[in-house]
Amino acid sequence: MRTLAALALALLTAIGASAQPAKPIVYVLSTGGTIAGSGSSSTDLSNYKPGAILGEQLVKAVPQISQIADVRVEQIVNVNSSDITIENWLTLAKRINAIIKDTPAVSGFVITSGTNTLEETAYFLNLTVRSDKPVVLVGAMRPATAISADGPLNLLNAVRTAIAPDSRGKGTLIVLNDEINAARDTTKTNTLRVETFRAPELGILGYIDEDRVSYYRSTTKRHTAASEFDVTSLTTLPKVSILYSYIDPDASLIQAALKSGAKGIVFAGTGNGALSVSEETVLKEIAAMPAASKPALVRSSRVGNGRVIATAEYDALGVIPGDTLNPQKARILLMLALTKTSDPKELRRIFSEY
Asked: Catalytic: 103?
């Protein structure tokens, strides 16, 4: 009787186990940065080595993650985010798109990154991942070895966000400090504070709290599944330079950028993307060039908030307004746009839609 009872108990246990729903699949693609940083002591918050810890170690250090998701970790690169390259970006985008094709059951992705260029990686993926499945960028402002390291909770919250049903279709997301931000609108605003990522005027998308992932808005701009950009066959992107405007600027840098092979230039102009007379003089020379050799020109702003809108003066010079995109994101959009077209009208359309 005891043997039969034991067999029955084992059978019931097996049935119960098989009835448990499968955990959602999340891929963690690691690239390094402060979240994977290691210092010489627990109070070393600045003189540490970024990208010293592998992604597998980061995930294992937060056992709560395995309770909510089937996490599969891949190490893409392990560097300071200032050393991320376009080649790394293309690798990430292609890998994510391949996983979505080969593993349809995947729920979402988490990309661990350094914070210095996290917003740029996020925006690139926002334009090149061809799916509405969540892609979440996460980082930390304190290394993994620090007192009150913010990485572990940020990582857990990123996984929670990646598996949340409401995260689908929101575009690439940035998760730090219990907040969810949109890749397009968000920038790093503070050198050291944990609350550094902000969408200054447009605001956060939502929060990650103990009870749930909550959303309050979403972007209206094209992204991910609605994007027209396909990087499948690309091994590089057209060269685009950023030139910063200031009092009495060195306008010769415009020609220097062209001589270096730039196919486009983004101006971090003053105010509403304004340029000086000396810069405009060079732009008039560019406007007189043959159409086939003209670079694409975009006006952004160094201000940090607000739209850069079209004006008759700059339209006549063929300079495209960058809307609310900051210079570094306008550069990303222009690089991708130039893989499709050099037609000024089409480039203007792309900047209005994305």
From this structure: no
